[in-house]
Amino acid sequence: MIKTLKGGCQCGAVRFAASDFARPSICHCRMCQKAYGGFFGALVMVKDGHFTRGEPKWFDSSNVARRGFCANCGTPLAYETKFGLEFSIGAFDDPAKVAPTIQVNLRDKLEFFDDLCSLPIKHETDDEWQDFISSVYSHQHPDHEIKTWPIAKEEK
């Protein structure tokens, strides 16, 4: 059995935990594409999933499903139907622990999806890019539990 895994939104207002997982997947349906603003949604069924800080805001994305997201920062966090609750894999502190094992809803899979890993890679090495990257300071919640929220300066 996997130990309890935790995760949450970008800003830290909503956190969750679970230890009993099933069917980690990539969903290609159009609703997941829209909900994630990406090419797919990555979800894992959580049989014992619960929120440990805050609660998501819920959107009824269809007559049979609702999607939970952080009302503060917009991070997609959950998907729920009569079959149960699923958490967004990318929102876990360590997403590799629940890596997708299947793809579902292939009828909406974008035609270029399978070729994405063969795209050329551009390594940014010029001084202007390096200066930009070195100036970035993330306001994102760290990928671990913290004592206080909002984040105290000493915990960043």
What is the topological layout?
Layout: E1 5-8, E2 15-18, E3 21-27, H1 30-36, E4 41-46, E5 50-53, E6 57-59, E7 66-69, E8 76-81, E9 84-88, E10 102-104, H2 127-134
Parallel strand pairs: 3-10
Antiparallel strand pairs: 1-2, 2-5, 3-4, 4-9, 6-7, 7-8, 8-9
What do these coordinates show?
The protein is mainly beta and 156 residues long. The chain has one domain (5-155): Metal Binding Protein, Guanine Nucleotide Exchange Factor, Chain A. It has 2 helices and 10 strands; from the N terminus they run βββαβββββββα. The strands form 2 sheets. A 7-stranded mixed beta sheet has the order 6-7-8-9-4-3-10. It starts with a strand and ends in a 22-residue tail after the last helix. The model has no long low-confidence stretch (mean pLDDT 91).
Quick synopsis:
Helices cover 10% and strands 29% of the residues. With 156 residues, the chain is mostly beta strands.
Across the major sheet, the strand order is: 6-7-8-9-4-3-10
**Which stretches are poorly predicted, pLDDT < 50 over at least 5 residues?**
none
The number of distinct helices, counting runs of at least 4 residues, comes to 2
- CATH class designation: Mainly Beta
Highlighted features:
single chain, mainly beta, Metal Binding Protein, Guanine Nucleotide Exchange Factor, Chain A, seven-stranded mixed β-sheet
